[in-house]
Design goal:
By secondary structure, the protein is mostly helical. The chain has helices spanning 9-22, 26-41, 47-59, 64-107, 111-140, 144-160, 165-179, 181-186, 198-202, 206-217, 228-239, 245-257, 265-297, 301-304, 308-336, 340-355, 361-377; strands at 62-63, 222-223. The longest helix has 44 residues, at 64-107.
Length: 380
């Protein structure tokens, strides 16, 4: 057994600043980097403690890799460590996306930039579908109840074009009831709708609205940052009309081509809504729920990590979100896949992701941007 060598907080901060700067590939890749570097190479945390953190992250809302990073910070330096690691892990991508948002606002209407996003948007659809499929396949297997929940959420998202967050909770409770009926009936946990109005609470102040909305959105992101796409798409585009469909797709694209959690696409969205202040409050809001969840429940996770009912609930919520992602992608695809070149980009990306498992998503996005520029800039 390896001897554990606890790092100083500064060494942890330096590591997560580095990972946040070069960590492409989504949550599974980021988890792999952390396990390789912190468990196997540096021996900064033991395998059992690493897995305990992963179990807690799986049970709480929030992007999985970010939650695990927060847990590792908490494990070594409690609240100070959790706070420092959250900032270190997200700061590099936050600054990159903020800079890209500024460039987008000032130069986004030039022909080459619009041509790049023309190609990227079609590529994004293929990537999101692939990730939703992988997530659902991992969870569903041969469970027909979960397949039913998955299909119903696809249909709801595709037909209504909005995401009803209570449907996610209802899906979780339904799976809990089916898989652990007696424990469900005797459970002491009850989900009560709060019925809080963002418009009322914020007193119509735009920054307060942005903060409250993204803080609420952060509570329905389970497992993958892709889970936030269907929720914010319905609200940001159709309810509040803060962004157009095209701007929303561009924001998701930016989240994919930068390192770190894709959830940081909200930085881009916040900037388009209310400038730098909007970017900051959106980012703080979306990460606040997972941060609080980790520091509150980390000392007690042994009591909940292996509870069958809780695991069934999380499973139901996660598969519902996967269905909603797929349904939302159908809506977004109507605006992104519009002609033969975009059909070709979509099919080419889908084939590349299926055939070449080691290819990274940012590579696909950059290639798609190049194709978009060639197609449009070459047309006179």
């Amino acid at each position: 057994m390896k001897t554990i060598s606890p790092p100083s907080l500064w060494h942890l901060i330096k590591y997560f600043l580095h990972l946040g700067s070069i960590g492409f590939g989504g949550p599974l890749a980021l988890l792999g980097y952390m396990r390789r570097d912190l468990v196997e190479k540096r021996s900064w945390i033991s395998q059992p403690n690493f897995l305990n953190g992963l179990a807690l992250a799986s049970l709480c809302p929030g992007p999985l890799a970010t939650q695990l990073a927060i847990y590792i910070g908490w494990f070594h330096a409690r609240i100070l460590g959790a706070t420092a690691i959250l900032v270190a892990f997200t700061l590099p991508a936050f600054l990159m996306i903020l800079a890209l948002a500024m460039m987008y606002v000032h130069y986004g209407d030039v022909k080459w930039a619009r041509s790049a996003f023309y190609g990227i948007s079609a590529c994004v659809i293929a990537i999101v579908i692939r990730n939703a499929y992988q997530l659902s396949k991992m969870i569903v297997a041969r469970d027909y109840w979960l397949w039913g929940v998955f299909a119903l959420n696809i249909l709801a998202a595709a037909v209504t074009h909005i995401q009803i967050y209570w449907a996610f909770l209802a899906s979780g409770l339904f799976v809990w009831m089916v898989k652990v009926p007696l424990r469900f009936l005797s459970a002491s946990i009850f989900v009560l709708p709060l019925g809080l109005s963002i418009e009322t609470l914020s007193n119509n102040h735009i920054l307060a609205k942005v903060f409250l909305f993204f803080a609420w959105a952060g509570t329905v992101v389970f497992g993958s940052g892709y889970a936030i796409i269907p929720f914010i798409q319905g609200e940001v585009v159709h309810h509040y009309h803060w962004l157009t469909e095209t701007q929303f797709m561009d924001a998701i694209s930016i989240g994919m081509i930068t390192p770190g959690p894709i959830v940081l696409a909200v930085t881009f969205i916040g900037y388009l809504i209310a400038g730098i202040k909007g970017a900051i409050v959106a980012t703080v809001g979306v990460f606040l729920p997972c941060y609080l969840c980790v520091i509150i429940f980390a000392p007690h996770f042994h009591r909940i990590a292996h509870h069958d009912g809780v695991k069934a609930f999380v499973q139901g919520v996660t598969i519902a979100v996967a269905g909603a992602i797929t349904g939302a992608t159908i809506t977004l695809g109507k605006n992104a896949i519009i002609d033969l070149p975009t059909i070709g980009i979509f099919l080419g990306t889908s084939f590349a992701l299926y055939r070449f498992h080691k290819i990274r998503e940012p590579v696909c996005l950059l290639l798609a941007a190049g194709v978009g520029i060639l197609v449009n800039m070459g047309v006179k």
